[in-house]
Amino acid sequence: MVKHQPLQVYEKQVFVSFVTGIYGCRWKRYQRSQDDSSKWECTWFIILCSSFLLLLFWAYFWLVAQNDFNEFNWSVYNRSGEWRDETIPILASTTVGFSYITFLMILALFHISLGQQLNLYWVHKIGVLATLLTTISGLITVKDIWGDEWDILLVSLQSTAPFLHIGALATVTAISWLVAGYVILVTTRPDFLLLIYVIILLALYLAPLTFNCPCIMDRTSLRPRPDIIGRRGAPMLAPENTMVSFNRALQHGANSLEADVTISVDGIPFLMRDRTLRRTTDVSKVFPARQYEDASFFNWTEIRSLNAGHWFLESDPYWTVETLTARDRSRIGNQTVCSLLEMLRLTARSNSSALLNIRKPPPEHPRSRNWFMDTLWAVQKAGISQKRVTWTPDTDRGRVRGLQQTANEKLSVEEIRRREELKILTCVFLFPREYLANNVSVTVYPVNEPWLYSILWCSGVPSVSSDAPQVLRKVPYPIWLMSQNAYNFIWITSDLVSLAVVIGIFCFQKWRMSGMQTYNPEQIMLSAVARRSSRDVNIMKEKLIFSGAALITYTTENKWLRM
């Protein structure tokens, strides 16, 4: 009798070892399993997916919020009293966390596609949980400090929705490979997963019906390019509200200048955004005992003695100081606080217009009742036409004759019509389209990114206020513009291609799985051995043959002796 010992040949599974090793610290073959994952591990997979989606939303928010980074830092400064660029640690931690969670998601999907049991390593569980909690706390903090900024997500979708739709469609189409393999192999309740997948796919196919993109329009309907207002000059290139900043804005094509006006204790209007002088001057060195005092309680001589340029070179609020020449830095370092009279004279010489945000003095201020006359005196002395000067707030209309006023609050169209010659200065996330539909003059702020400028251009906005006129001047045409028919063609074509690919994947997976199920274990083993024609396999075969021959010889001799 001949006994055959089964020959087992284990192929090296480097990729499987890499995937299971990093994801669950299962580097050895005997540690891996192709059994169904436990409910506990499935729960962790759901937590991992939730973390990924939340981080994706968080990363997208900061991507579009780049338009308002300086506004965020200024909001934090008003709360803490210290100027720091808080966006750097946020962006760094977001990049690290998103990369980490995305990598784990890819490994988990590979587990599913390879039929391996999910078993997330405990270190990764701590990391996923820490990332999830950190992201949630970040969302809560931003809502508290910068809650209005969430609305910019809706504005950004007017530009990115068509492209996000194609990306989401490609992702869901690719996931059909995993869904098809799971539905065909699993016999218990596969229809539920298939139903969910079909619903998501149909929702994506019909999503463009809900899109409202201004840049999907006929080219002949495009309105003139919006005018650019230099918001505090060109604060990315020079200190805000200084003469060099206003000059830079005009050099880069700004049509108007915007400034923040404060009235000094002796009635001189000067330019200052903050309530105090701490952030943009060296008041802490010159008047250390008064650095927290309201800027309006300084006289003009004291204000003029302060330096208004060194802070820009030291803090680098827009990460642009390295691009400046040595001559520019020297000029910036010698800047002083600018008066309203100087700014208006520059505006008159350049044949531009001015938009003034006036901060009324507090009630105990000596000029609290005369702030209007002080401002009007500067306008008249500068020699600029009153029709080219617009200011806010929208008060004292009985005293404002010949000057245009603007409101920076959200008003109804009826209220705007009641207030004659009123313009609207509105932030991006409060911009309502009914203003344009009723021929209301609208200026939107802040607009620093080309994509946002393109949306407002397509929407028909007449003017925008920007910290970056040097960037917007390089946008001669909307970033993207297509007709409705062209987009409909792209939309329907992408849906049909996706549907064909999904059907093809399901058919191929069914054919592949049915082919695998027709093999018996002996065929699989023989096939595995046949693929390994290495020298070690040949030696093992020879040893098996010789051992079999020896056993036959021994059995024959033993039988002959008994006879």
Key terms for this structure?
membrane; transmembrane; 8% strand; 9 strands; disordered C terminus; single chain; 21 helices; 563 residues; alpha/beta; glycerophosphodiester phosphodiesterase activity; 54% helix; 8-stranded parallel β-barrel; elongated; hydrolase
What this model shows, in words?
This protein is elongated. Helix 1 crosses helix 4 (87-114) and helix 6 runs antiparallel to helix 7 (190-206). It contains 21 helices and 9 strands. The model is unreliable at 517-533 and 543-563 (pLDDT under 50). The protein has 563 residues and is of the alpha/beta class.
Distance between the termini: 17 Å
Tally of helical segments: 21
Can you give the mean pLDDT?
84
Major sheet, described briefly? 8 strands, parallel, barrel
H/E element sequence: HHHHHHHEHEEHHHHHEHEEHEHEHEHHHH
Gyration radius over CA: 35 Å
**Helical content (DSSP H or I, runs of 4+):** 40-55%
Q: Structural class, please?
A: alpha/beta
Neighbour order of strands in the largest sheet: 1-2-4-5-6-7-8-9
Q: Care to count the β-strands?
A: 9
Strand proportion: 5-15%
Runs in which pLDDT lies below 50 for 5 or more consecutive residues are 517-533, 543-563
Shape: elongated
Draw up the topology in text.
Blueprint: H1 14-24, H2 39-64, H3 69-80, H4 87-114, H5 122-146, H6 152-185, H7 190-206, E1 227-231, H8 243-251, E2 256-263, E3 269-271, H9 283-286, H10 300-304, H11 310-315, H12 326-333, H13 340-349, E4 353-359, H14 371-382, E5 389-392, E6 404-407, H15 413-418, E7 422-427, H16 434-437, E8 442-445, H17 450-459, E9 463-466, H18 469-472, H19 484-517, H20 521-531, H21 535-562
Parallel strand pairs: 1-2, 1-9, 2-4, 4-5, 5-6, 6-7, 7-8, 8-9
Antiparallel strand pairs: 2-3
Helix pairs in contact: 1-4, 2-4, 2-5, 4-5, 6-7, 6-17, 6-19, 13-14
